[in-house]
User: Which sequence fits this backbone?
DNA sequence: TTGAAAGCGCTAACAG
DNA sequence: CTGTTAGCGCTTTCAA
């Protein structure tokens, strides 16, 4: 801990009481312009910075916000974290980033640690269906990002339904007649909504949906590659378009098709979801749906901050627009 | 802040003094087994958790460690962050992750915020040549990861020289006769060492190094792709092997070559560096040098912790072994 | 407009 | 083995 001056030193140097120093520092009313100057000068001269722990103890506020991330090595989540930091950097709150690596036990450890710090609020990104531990022990404000858990009061997330819709409309516009969806097996809100968008685009073009048009697949590269290879070797290539609920799956599908000598986009067109950077760098570059991480983070920060500072429980659900990034896995133009 | 009990409540309930409660909680000596039990029971019953801010104020320790990251969306750095969290999760320290997005101004803001928190130490990942701000204002322990800055006392990093050596030896073993190096323009220690490994592998096989074997290129996909396309259109494909100082460059080179109808690995073999996941998923999968993020993080944590707890300034440099991941951009086997 | 003083929850020195 | 007490640095009430 640095051996910095205390409020007493400033008071002495400025020839005022510590109460006055405190008032000036915190920008309250109740002092003359002259006094203010004296104090400010002393503060500057001493390089004085208030002791954060004393302030926290006294005010019963930690000015800390816990951020729970399921996977910090996932670029999408990392971007949200970055934008959250951008939002809070100028404010007096400190973010405590906690990566759970999708491990419930680890997440519970993290949550307990956060609780010990008496954090003022929590931002929970794409987590479990229920934030069991935290709501039981504490009643601090929680803002959810991405996935809708049970009993969420505040949820910030992309317009997944529209994302799915845009993706599939692009395939339809490009001439696809038989479009399948490769979806993450989890029944989480994000995935369900994306599928709903897929269905809407189909029905809008009067394309019927059959059971053989939905393929369940774990959302990683290897699973998707294997899935597409199995599918084709068993049933042949009975489709000309495929919408994948995330980019990693889309990439596995792309490479699987290429390995089996199918041409993308000539034989099959593909659209992914997330716009992770790998989707720009694969060959051909992937058409995908981009989520606005900055807007997501800003909204989450804004709503949480308001709830913390006003003490009024928020109750809101914010849908952030998505954008279709057209690249080479759909149109050849 | 939660309305939790204080040490007084526990003392009352257990019929002892607050000093005794404190002793038990902190696992010190000086109480009977019976007393201990009484206290523990009361703690449990009340769900008592010590007020972190009171402890910090009283002990003049924040139990916070700042982690400065240049780019949290970079998978390599994100993995180090994850492993740092794994290291500290069971300990009483809290990590404050700060992404600077490679922006000096933002980094300075972050550092000032950290200083206001009276953090106990800093882990500085792959940062600027000089950690100017922090060393000037404060004298807390700093551990550097990856890059060697000026005046570093503690540096943890991969064996970059050996990484470069392994990469190039692989190319040589695969029959390459003319191996060029595409390197990041920055004269940072990591890059210089990787090039030294390249040179050692060449000289070991008595391959002379000429100026036309070194190409400078910014370490991103687009720059690398453009670089390789320009190089070949101007000078032809005068090489049969290329070592790139990072995977993103290697990927740009791979796709550039493929676009120009060269075959990898038949015409040109490529090795990258970092083993980011994209290197597994590109086509063909990239041979690359893998860094052990877990060991890097553990060593950084261990050394910093020791310095914080003993107060003895550390002075050490630890080299973490690297591993060559052979994939399809070199051997066809 | 200002100052004196209480007290946030805790640790540790000292006394017994 | 246990208790009393001072005080960490700050905010805030109350009095002037």
Assistant:
């Amino acid at each position: 801990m640095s051996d910095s001056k205390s409020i007493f030193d400033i008071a002495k140097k400025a020839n005022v009481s510590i109460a006055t120093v405190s008032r000036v520092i915190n920008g309250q009313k109740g002092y003359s312009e002259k006094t203010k100057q004296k104090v400010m000068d002393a503060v500057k001269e001493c390089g004085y910075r208030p002791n954060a722990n004393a302030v926290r103890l006294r005010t019963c506020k930690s000015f800390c916000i816990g951020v729970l991330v399921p996977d910090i090595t996932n670029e999408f989540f990392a971007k949200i974290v970055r934008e959250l930091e951008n939002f809070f950097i100028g404010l007096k709150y400190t973010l405590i980033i906690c990566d759970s690596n999708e491990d419930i036990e680890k997440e519970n450890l993290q949550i307990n640690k956060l609780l010990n710090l008496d954090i003022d609020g929590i931002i929970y990104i794409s987590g479990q269906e229920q934030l069991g531990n935290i709501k039981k022990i504490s009643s601090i404000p929680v803002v959810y990002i991405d996935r809708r858990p049970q009993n969420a009061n505040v949820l910030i997330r992309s317009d997944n339904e529209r994302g799915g819709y845009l993706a599939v409309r692009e395939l339809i516009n490009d001439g696809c007649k038989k479009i399948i969806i490769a979806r993450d097996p989890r029944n989480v809100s994000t995935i369900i909504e994306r599928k709903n968008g897929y269905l809407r685009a189909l029905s809008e073009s009067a394309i019927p949906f059959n059971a053989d048009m939905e393929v369940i697949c774990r959302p990683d590269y290897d699973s998707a590659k294997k899935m597409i290879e199995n599918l084709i070797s068993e049933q042949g290539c009975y489709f000309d378009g495929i919408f994948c609920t995330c980019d990693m799956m889309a990439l596995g599908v792309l490479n699987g098709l290429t390995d089996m000598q199918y041409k993308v986009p000539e034989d099959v067109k593909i659209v992914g979801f997330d716009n992770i950077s790998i989707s720009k760098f694969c060959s051909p570059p992937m058409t995908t749906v981009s989520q606005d991480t900055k807007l997501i983070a800003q909204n989450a920060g804004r709503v949480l901050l308001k709830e913390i500072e006003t003490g009024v429980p928020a109750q809101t659900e914010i849908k952030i627009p998505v954008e279709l990034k057209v690249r080479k896995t759909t149109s050849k133009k």
Residues 10 and 45 of chain A are 9 Å apart (CA to CA). Chain A has a mean pLDDT of 92. Chain A touches chain B through 56 residues (CB under 8 Å).
